[in-house]
Design goal:
Blueprint lengths: L5 E8 L3 E8 L4 E8 L11 E2 L1 H19 L3 E9 L6 E2 L9 E2 L7 H10 L1 H9 L8 H11 L1 H6 L2 E2 L2 H10 L4 E2 H4 L4 E2 L4 E2 L1 H6 L12 E2 L4 E3 L2 H7 L6 E3 L4 H8 L8 E5 L3 E7 L11 E4 L6 E5 L6 H9 L7 H9 L9 E3 L19 E3 L7 H23 L4 E5 L6 H11 L2 E5 L4 H15 L3 H9 L2 E4 L6 H18 L3 H7 L28
Helix pairs in contact: 1-6, 10-15, 11-13, 12-13, 13-14, 15-16
Length: 525
């Protein structure tokens, strides 16, 4: 009787879906399962998620993937997930309330205050990253002012993957990539007492989990094994935040290599040997925990929500993405002169510029504009945003790509045409899960993570830029930047209009300056 294949499990808890994949040790995908997770909007600019519902989604996807995979010998597991936000636990490591997510915008006014009083500069000096409303330090102050009961009960902070892994192992730790957006000196990969004191946050320091190497591992508890249907005692690796895990899954690890992710947000990252090699002052720097190497990242908020929104807005919500893309593909490059500014996130934009007031808009419309042109303009707007990040990081040549939107051949080709890069799209699904699965594989085989990742990567689809479109897209990109910069000074006023009643003289208009409107209750689904 043949032995069942040895396998590893990768779990990726994204903002809108949890994915679990079962892979053989030579990279063959045996099964993948997905479960949606709900983002609650209990008040203006707020984004929250039930940590309990997230854990239930993990259980559901792992069990479903194992059932589909059949008879396998699971030897290890890894977890990745969305970063940033405030994920607060009590003394029993149970949630004190919903997680405040990375895309939450309630602290936007506080970010502006920190920009003026020097706190944002202190964050930048130590972490190498710009501040934005969904970062932990500014959220802790915001919650202390507006939700003090949460802070009074909180004893630990655990980002998404760390919360899941604590459920798996009973131990709460994090890694350097995850902690880089909190109080970490990314040159050393350790917490900075200097930054904690510069922000006056000594009272929050006790919330921070210990930092371990991404490949460190703890055994799966018997209780978690029974819940998930996995063997008790298998190693569960510490893992990486999702953006860094995506790079591992793509096999990008050497200094000078770059990769992109387009999911709920977009991402463009370059590996550097040391923090001293970071060249921008508007990005995110992630310590990798490997010999001082860092990822220099620009993470625009302009991701797939723009596409979801325009599909629904134009009444295409009941159509498949193939049908939607066919309509956009039928429109010639340039979308008939329509430009789309892809700044639809409530939290504004964070790369390649930081502006919590950033707003989305179409420009260049006429009564002749067609729905197909509006659709294509959104695809091109996302690509223009990534092109601007490309210029800031100096990325050229070949760019590896993954993420939910990377399944779109249209978007991949538009990216190639607008950036001038050859796009290599991983044909394998769930690269974040594969990235942490590579760490799990390295843990059980004793191989280097790079070698394990190469075994799990699979084939790459190639999209080459069309040189015939270069001049036209260069002209449109220049117009995109120019009109965006012309509108930027008016974004605060445009944002303010959202809080006005339909009648500017109505009592509702007097609440426009209320920094903390009373939230409405929505039950987490």
């Amino acid at each position: 009787m043949s032995q069942p294949p040895v396998a590893v499990v990768g779990i990726d808890a994204g903002t809108t879906a949890v994915k679990a994949t079962v892979l053989t040790t030579d990279g063959a995908e045996l099964a993948t399962a997905r479960a949606p997770v709900h983002v609650a909007r209990p008040g203006p600019a707020q984004a929250e998620q039930s940590m309990t519902e997230l854990w239930h989604a993990v259980v559901r996807t792992v069990r479903e993937a194992l059932e589909t995979a059949g008879d396998v010998d699971v030897a290890a597991a890894g977890v990745t997930g969305q970063g940033d936000g405030a994920w607060l636990l009590d003394e029993h490591a149970e949630p004190v309330g919903p997680a405040i997510l990375w895309l939450d915008g309630r602290a936007a006014d506080r970010v502006r205050a920190w920009e003026h009083d020097g706190k944002a500069a202190a964050v930048r000096r130590t972490t190498g990253s710009t501040l934005f409303p969904g970062a932990l330090p500014v959220l802790l102050e915001e919650l202390e002012a507006t939700r003090p009961e949460l802070l009074r009960r909180a004893r630990h902070h655990a980002n998404c993957k760390d919360w899941i892994r604590s459920q798996l192992t009973g131990v709460l730790t994090t890694d350097a990539s995850e902690a880089s957006r909190t109080y970490v000196d990314t040159a050393t990969g350790t917490y900075s007492d200097e930054l904690i004191d510069a922000l006056g946050h000594r009272r929050f320091a006790e919330l921070l989990p210990p930092i371990e190497a991404a490949g460190s591992h703890r055994p799966l508890t018997a209780a978690a094994a029974d819940t998930l249907g996995l063997p008790a005692g298998i190693p569960v690796v510490t893992g990486l935040v999702d953006t860094a895990a995506g790079g591992a899954g793509l096999g990008v690890s050497d200094p000078g290599q770059s990769y992109a992710i387009i999911g709920t947000t977009a991402f463009l990252g370059t590996v550097h040997a040391t923090r001293a090699d970071v060249g921008t002052d508007v990005g995110i720097t992630l310590a990798t925990g490997q010999d001082g190497a860092v990822l220099e990242c620009l993470c625009p908020m302009s991701g797939t929500p723009n596409l979801d929104w325009v599909r629904d807005l134009l009444g295409r919500g009941g159509q498949s993405w193939e049908a939607v893309e066919a309509e956009a593909r039928a429109v010639s490059a340039g979308a008939g002169g329509v430009l789309y500014l892809p700044y639809g996130a409530e939290a504004g934009e964070r790369a390649p510029f930081a502006d919590p007031h950033a707003s989305a808009s179409w420009l260049g419309l006429s009564t002749e504009t067609t729905p197909g042109q509006l659709l294509r303009a959104v695809y091109e707007g996302i690509a223009f945003s990534l092109r601007e990040c490309q210029e800031a990081l100096g990325v050229g040549g070949t760019l590896r790509l993954c993420g939910g939107a990377a399944t779109s051949g249209l978007l991949c080709q538009i990216l190639a045409d607008i950036t001038g890069c050859t796009i290599e799209r991983a044909s394998a699904a769930e690269l974040g899960a594969r990235g942490v699965a590579a760490h799990a594989l390295a843990a059980i085989t004793g191989t280097e993570v790079q070698a394990a990742a190469a075994r799990l990567l699979g084939e790459l689809d190639v999209f080459r830029p069309d040189p015939g479109l270069r001049t036209a897209y260069e002209t449109r990109f220049a117009a995109f930047v120019a009109v965006r910069d012309a509108i930027r000074p008016h974004w605060p006023d445009l944002r303010g209009l959202r809080t006005l009643g339909d009648d500017p003289s109505s009592p509702a208009s007097t609440s426009a300056g209320d920094e903390h409107p009373s939230p409405t209750h929505k039950e987490l689904a």
